Amino acid sequence: MSELSEVDKTKRLFMGLGSIAIGAGIGGALAYPIFQFAVGNALKTSEGGDDKNWIELGSLSEFEEGKPTAKKITIEIRDGWVKSSSDETIWVVKKGDTFLTFTATCPHLGCKVNWVPERSEYFCPCHNSAFEVTGERKPGAASARGLDSLEHRVANGKLEVVFQKFKNLLPTKEVFS
Amino acid sequence: MASPAIPQFNGTLGKIYDWVDERAGISEIMHELLDEPIPGGTKYAYAFGSALLFIFALQSITGVFLAMYYVPSAEDAHKSVEYIMKEVPFGAFMRGMHHYGSSAMVIMVVLHILQIVIWGAYKQKRELLWLVGAGLFQLVLAFSLSGYLLPWDMKAYYGTVVTVGIASEVPILGDLIKRIIIGGTEMGTITISRFFMVHVFLLPALTAGGIAAHLYLFRKALPAGPFNMTEQEAMFKVEPFWPGQVFKDAVFSLVVFAILAYMSWSTLAPLEPKADPSQTQYVARPEWYFLFLFQLLKYFPGSTAIIGSLVIPGIVMAVITFLPFLDRNPERHPLKRPFVMLGTVALLAAIGTLHLLAKRDDAQNFAAQIKAQEEEGARFLKEPFEPKDTSRKALVAAAPAPEAFVKNCAVCHGENGEGGPAGPKLVGIAKKENRSKEDIVGLIENPSAYGASKMPPMPQVSATDRVAIADWVHSLK
Asked: Among A13, A103, A147, B419, which residue has the fewest nearby CB atoms (within 10 Å)?
């Protein structure tokens, strides 16, 4: 490389920095659209407005006093380019004239809780969170809050709920949508 | 190793650099990559190869990200591409870059080959370098063919039907080859899945290996330099790759990038309605750079078809591939190589002529249909996105068609309004402009007043029936 032609140092510096600048410019110009593309619609909050979507759980007579009943509901979800149906379980407890309705999703990390009659508790098998029949967290539960209750009403002799998802881990209930 | 390409740092930065360099050998790599001597000096004419590498990188990046949303199945491929185009932020831009990038790749590979041919740069022990290059050229074409099917729209479907048909012209093994390409006898999910695997995994891997071999052999052979200088003269004017040639390559790549980005912003990459094997009016055309091959087929009817589809293109590809073995004269000046230069010009002229003849034929015979297809494609892209509905609600069967529809409309529009050879589909018509129930009632009586001049007027349908038909048609989703 000793017989390199004598090139003006400034010119070489310009071409070197120029090449790096062009490379960085193209990279930068691509980075923004790619980032937006990759994030996609992940941060879009679901539409639907203020209209509450009441989902029927069954006739009032189906529920026994004080005994948690699992009810499967079908919700409509938007999954990218597909509109589809998905099933969720709701725990319903009758207390006199009133009802308690909980989602079966553990507020800790999102596993599903089951009712264990022997111990009279909802139990999450993932990290051993236990909840009272009323949904309150039992001492020592990994979850920071009790089970998430859902808004419900009685219409035409049927129990109905509004299904929602909530954020994990927090000590208070916050909607995740 | 004093080299202008190796960064020089002082103080702490210099110490850090030295520490890394002693362990990673950066200086050595930089010297290897960037100090390559270019006989006769740097030139923009040498930028095509680097630009090809640049476009390949762009295609890889945009392709990897498109794969985040694309689903290779007959059921979802088209919908997922439509989702990319209409719903994903910058989706149309990303697909545009990939779509126009494929054209840029073909243009650039041709320019690269032409430069090498004109400069006679395939001579002097560069046979292997050229052979690997010829292989890469064919990989570029394979990329284009395999990618064409993936959106699963009308042109993708029919374009691939024709390509696969050509493959089946191979004597004796034709049927077998066709079955293996399609994955059976029906084009569908298995076909898309195969093309996807080839396009996204196999070809990129082969291409990456090919590029590595091509670059290695290029560095081994050294650049050929100008054709009008002796080797001594060229070595006297030698310049290193960095920074002069790198800068020229970067400027050229920037121009290519700017053009691609502008096109992707200003013009949506085409996407037609979903593939429909029952459509008989569709005029299938390949991507523009294969149009000359398509035209060539027309001159070989019946049993001679294989001459136009496989024999002639095969011979031309073989001549290109083995050029360094056929042209053994060490002379490099283009004006002193009349045979190769005239052959090149003749080939380009033949390709250009066939291309223009194909265009002229279409303008004379299919102008209206091709225009209608383009308009249909543009209309489809403007339609708001409607998700595919697989929810249990949607599975509840739609009401049966009213009798008047079955009697008067189903012949052309299909029994369930799905469209047929002579009439467009009516499913989803409620979403279109100027197609309210009242419009449809009026349209049945006087189609041309509602822009449906191809449809015959239906005065025999009573007013009550017209309303029933409009109600039912509007319920189709």
From this structure: A13
